[in-house]
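User: Fold both of these, please.

Assistant: Here is the first one.
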Amino acid sequence: MNNDRKNLEKKIVKDYAILNKVIDAQRTLGHKIVVTIGSWDLLHIGHTRYLLEASKHGDILIVGVDSDAAIKLYKGQYRPIVPQEERMEMLTYLGFVDYITLVEDLNAQGQWQYKLIKLLRPDMFIAVEDSYPEEQLEHIREFCSEIKVLPRQAESTSSSDIVQGMLKGELFPIISEISDFGKKITDLANKISKGGKR
């Protein structure tokens, strides 16, 4: 592994206690701390625009990455597409992201327990519209000085749309072919069972 990649990987701090010490040092320097959390699966232009906009609201941007287990709970068994370690690494290459950490503190019902923001007490929490119900935003407000809700940053791109497009473009035609082949096999089996010719 080269030195550039090693330096970038220093942005990933999974241990919240260590991250808290780093953030305390940043606060001592007078830096405003901003936190946002997401899945960042199939990183796309909407994600990068959103994170760039989030970074403008403070001096230090901490990006929480939902764990694979968490994403499976709220997006379904076939997500994420990209594993958590790779999603965290992808974020290290964005210069406006200062620290990345894993978010995996869910209860048995799959609800986030706010451990990251309870410990860090960020100056601002950034959310994308429609990502948190108002009741949950009220809980988040207990641990942050301010919440900023940003609009979606891509009009025609989302990870879900990318996945659906891939399925429609690749998988659905294959399923259709298999279905057509299955019908031909069924017809042939019916003819044979009735004593007909092939």
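And the second sequence with its predicted structure:
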Amino acid sequence: MFKPLTRAALTVAVVTASLHAVSVAAQTMTVDQARKQIAPFYEMLNQPATKDVKALSEQALSPDWKSYSSETEFKGRDGFVAQVGGFGKLIPDLKWDIKDVMVDGNRIIVRSEASGTPVVPFFGVPPSGKSFKIMTIDIHTIKDGKAITAHHVEDWAGAIRQLSAKQFLTPEMDSVNPFPRTVRSSRPLGISHQIGDVGLVVV
């Protein structure tokens, strides 16, 4: 004969079943669902000066959301909204083009290409009409339908190299050069710089 479950055993069984259900739900997120989940976030990053960034952030991010640029340094939702607004002024045509989306449980990994043409000095590089294109990686953690954290990295050093690049091959030399066009920058790779309300760090 089976013995009746005690209240403690029944509680454990219910909690275990609930956790299992949550785990299964997280693991069965499709790429299409993930893209829909993160759409408002990347909408913020595309020409942000023309968007209601605050409303989009509230749609996509939990109130206590944190954006990590390292293991310990992060911004909250309000700080991120201010930062994106600053980017909109610096780079009016800013574009964040999603190239790939992967899902791992309740995490969404996004590889993107960020591009734009700064209209004011950017990391100390004066505007010249040049544009940049760089790779970015974001890892979003989702809970209860909203992102609770983002861990991110952007190749801002690459952007600086592109914006401050100087051609030192003559057209004649370049025509016979077997390698891609070489550029160089007078700016070191490891820098930090503050631009208005936008605190950007390149390491």
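DSSP finds six helices and ten strands in the chain.
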